């Protein structure tokens, strides 16, 4: 029997799960919002970033991951995040980075272009970035609007891992079909990490897995 490409990552072993829990059990706090590369904090520790199209649920996922209710601001208005937001996790062991949403945004065109340009500069120039997590709405799979960011990550040689969000909102009958579409799309991208994480900020699904992965990256 052949192995499926891009399988859903297995749940972590107990020791790895506990290490991830302990990392995020420490204080998580907002550090700063950055609107230009010159404002980035010193590259003196590992960092992971979360990218995704507008309104995919990045802020909700970060809040669920860190066990907080309002660490990252959430909004029903697509494109609300217009800067690179830095958070310190685990008593300053790791930077967690919330990137501007890409795609449709209720903002002036010039503003959209400015923060999308910043996103590209960040991905191409941050040496301490261990992995990008690209959030994809599980209900819709990978859309054309995601193609630019995936291609940019390929060109920048930044490893990215696909995180499917809002899994609780997907009908059971549709799950496998959507996964087939996502796997087919990812095969075109050499920077894609070979495992998918399925999450729900509402139910907590996948949070233990993401914490464990983040802990492993923080140790590199």
What's the CATH architecture name? Answer: 3-Layer(aba) Sandwich
Spatial order of strands in the largest sheet: 1-3-4-2-5-6-7
Radius of gyration: 16 Å
Tell me the total number of β-strands.
7
Structurally, the number of domains stands at 1
Assign the CATH superfamily: P-loop containing nucleotide triphosphate hydrolases
Q: Tell the overall outline.
A: globular
Helix and strand element order: HEEHEEHEHEHEH
CATH topology: Rossmann fold
Share of helical residues: 25-40%
Strand content: 15-25%
Task: Work out the helix count.
Answer: 6
Could you walk me through the main structural features you see in this protein, from its secondary elements to its overall organization?
With 220 residues, this protein is of the alpha/beta class. The protein has a single domain (14-218), classed as P-loop containing nucleotide triphosphate hydrolases (Rossmann fold, 3-Layer(aba) Sandwich), CATH 3.40.50. The chain is 35% helix and 18% strand. It contains six helices and seven strands, in the order αββαββαβαβαβα. The protein has a seven-stranded mixed sheet, with helices on both faces. A hairpin with a 4-residue loop joins β3 (84-89) and β4 (94-98). α1 packs across α6 (207-218). The chain is globular. It starts with 13 loop residues before the first helix and ends with a helix. The model is unreliable at 74-80 (pLDDT under 50). Residues 44-220 form the EngB-type G domain. This is Probable GTP-binding protein EngB. Necessary for normal cell division and for the maintenance of normal septation. Belongs to the TRAFAC class TrmE-Era-EngA-EngB-Septin-like GTPase superfamily. EngB GTPase family. Its cofactor is Mg(2+).
